[in-house]
From TrEMBL:
It comes from the Bacteria. Keywords: Kinase, Transferase. The keyword Kinase applies. SUPFAM superfamilies: Protein kinase-like (PK-like). This is Fructosamine-3-kinase. Belongs to the fructosamine kinase family. It comes from Virgibacillus subterraneus.
């Protein structure tokens, strides 16, 4: 493994002496390491069988977030998507949470959401976890969310038999009537795309950072709905967010429909333990059969 680490460090321009390598834990997709050399400290991710452009797209998402001058991201120093040698090298981020860390995070995520693209979606197909995420650019948020997000997960679920029977019938009915709830004409905010509680961390001075994006342009309420799905955010976060960028009046009505996408992703990756939550949302919006 040290040979691989040295190759990654050389790609980042560091040829100094390797002092220590320590495996870190917390993600389920990549192997990851804390690495220290005589020059600096790094975070390196390694994937033995990375899909094409896997780390390139992560680096691109981090760059786009950085360009908003809002929330901090680690600096990407090198990456490779070469077969059997795929890696991402970033600077090491470490700090202690301060009293206002989550207030800063909420305010800066809101500031990121106040940066807008020209269309919804993304020009490149990306990944959500280990699943391919088809994209494309759309003038309509409704069309993008229906066709590239929910429909794509439905197709995936049908292929692997996680979406069958009444669950499939309800989801098909929901997609045919989605315009009742999901807005068509909203501004396409810059979105992290995978902003669960494990994808932010604390740097020096209590400064919050976000990591592991699955970047897109879209309705910011889609992002906020996901932050509420599995926890990891405090009242201070939401209060600071709303002070900078107030929520629309329809947020509570559509929140579960935005959470549905991420629950379908989890259903398709992790299995039936997420099925009851998917079914509950479908029954709420389209009834029972």
């Amino acid at each position: 493994m040290n040979k691989f680490i040295e190759q990654a460090l050389h790609a980042a321009g560091d040829f100094s002496t390797l002092k220590q390598v320590k495996q870190t834990f917390g993600g389920s997709i990549n192997e990851s390491f804390f690495v220290e050399t005589n020059e600096q400290k790094y975070f390196i991710k390694y994937h033995t069988d990375a899909p094409d452009r896997f780390f390139e797209l992560e680096a691109k998402g981090l760059r786009l977030i950085r360009e908003t001058n809002s929330v901090s991201v680690p600096e990407v120093l090198a990456y490779s998507d070469e077969k059997n040698n795929a890696f991402l090298v970033m600077d090491w981020v470490e700090g202690r949470k301060s009293q206002d860390t989550e207030t800063k995070l909420g305010d800066r995520i809101a500031k990121m959401h106040q940066t807008f693209g020209n269309q919804h979606g993304f020009p490149d197909d990306t990944f959500i976890g280990v699943l391919p995420q088809p994209n494309g650019l759309f003038s309509s948020w409704l069309e993008y969310y229906r066709d590239s997000r929910l429909s794509a997960q439905m197709t995936q679920g049908i292929e692997q038999n996680s979406i069958t029977g009444n669950r499939r019938l309800r989801l098909e009915k929901l997609l045919m009537n989605l315009e009742k709830w999901i807005p068509d004409d909203v501004e396409p905010s810059y979105l992290h795309g995978d902003l669960w509680g494990g994808n932010w961390l604390v740097g020096a001075g209590g400064n919050p950072y976000v990591i592991d994006p699955s970047f897109l342009y879209g309705d910011r309420h889609f992002e906020l709905a996901f932050t509420e799905l599995f926890g990891g955010y405090s009242r201070d976060f939401y209060q600071a967010y709303e002070e900078r960028f107030a929520l629309r009046d329809d947020y509570e009505d559509i929140k579960a429909l935005y959470q549905l996408y991420y629950l379908l992703v989890h259903l398709n990756i992790f299995g039936e333990s997420y099925g009851p939550r998917v079914d509950s949302i479908l029954k709420r919006y389209v009834g029972v059969y």
